[in-house]
Amino acid sequence: MAAFGDARLYLERYIDEPRHVELQILADQTRVVLAGDRECTLQRRHQKLLEEAPAVGLSEPCRQRLGDLVVAAARAVGYRGAGTFEFLVDRDGEAFFIEANARIQVEHPVTEMVTGVDLVKEQIRVAAGEGLSLAHTETRAVGHAIECRVNAEHAYTGRPAPGMIRTLIAPGGPGVRVDTYAHAGCMIWPQYDALVAKVITHGHDRGEAIARMRRALGMFVIEGIETTVPLHLRVLSDPDFLAGRFTTGFLERFALV
């Protein structure tokens, strides 16, 4: 009462060892398009480090149920543009709504890689009053995609590692995409976000996407600052990660204190 002028309480259920999944939509004046789902469970201090599409931790019945739910919700509120509906999923596969982000997300490339839809372009089209260019109301995921966030941080402590990048050589090859602003001679300032680059790989299945990511990160040369690349390489070889057995606390096993 003293803090808010209202003595009522809102109690949220505590979910032990959840997975974090999100569903992508696009909407214009006439329709809502479901653009698939993403696995965003691998986090450090509640900040996502590795994302996948489609989500590993969703059963097909849950995927269908959540897809119907978010489309109905977007229609109910007259949503326009790109949007993400986020959920926690417990060990029994029950999903609990967290929030809806009314904007493009950092991890949008994994959805673009499996659907072939340029989410940023579609968002701009809607904002310009042109409407979506998509012919269907639901996209189809082809293969599997993974995104690793390469941050200017100590790989195992998360300590910020700002500084001057002396050398930057980005990887390439089939199924590899790199989104970055950085270059040799670029200063990574401590006042801003630590994200240096996003490495995204696509494969026919999850195994191929992982293999391409390991190869791409092994080729990525960044000298002058510490990055999260070593952490990603360890995660990508972890048996539990490879088997899809992980929760939001998974990265704690790699932490140095």
The CA-CA distance between the termini, in Å, is 39 Å
Q: Give helix and strand order, one letter per element, not per position.
A: EEEHEEHHEEEEEEHEHH
Instruction: Summarize the main sheet.
Output: 8 strands, antiparallel
Radius of gyration: 19 Å
The CATH homologous superfamily of the largest domain is named ATP-grasp fold, B domain
**CATH topology annotation of the largest domain:** D-amino Acid Aminotransferase, Chain A, domain 1
Helix segment count?
Answer: 6
CATH A-level architecture of the largest domain: 2-Layer Sandwich
**Helical content class:** 10-25%
Proportion of beta-strand residues: 25-35%
Number of strands: 12
Identify the strand order in the major beta sheet.
5-4-1-2-3-6-11-9
Mean model confidence by pLDDT: 95
Number of domains: 2
Structural class: alpha+beta
CATH class of the largest domain: Alpha Beta
Low-confidence residue ranges: none
**Coarse morphology:** globular
Written description of the protein model:
The protein is an alpha+beta fold and 257 residues long. The protein has two domains: 17-142, ATP-grasp fold, B domain (D-amino Acid Aminotransferase, Chain A, domain 1, 2-Layer Sandwich); 149-248, D-amino Acid Aminotransferase, Chain A, domain 1 (2-Layer Sandwich). Helix content is 23%, strand content 30%. It has six helices and twelve strands. The strands form three sheets. An eight-stranded antiparallel sheet has the order 5-4-1-2-3-6-11-9, sandwiched between helices. β2 and β3 (47-53) form a beta hairpin. It is globular.
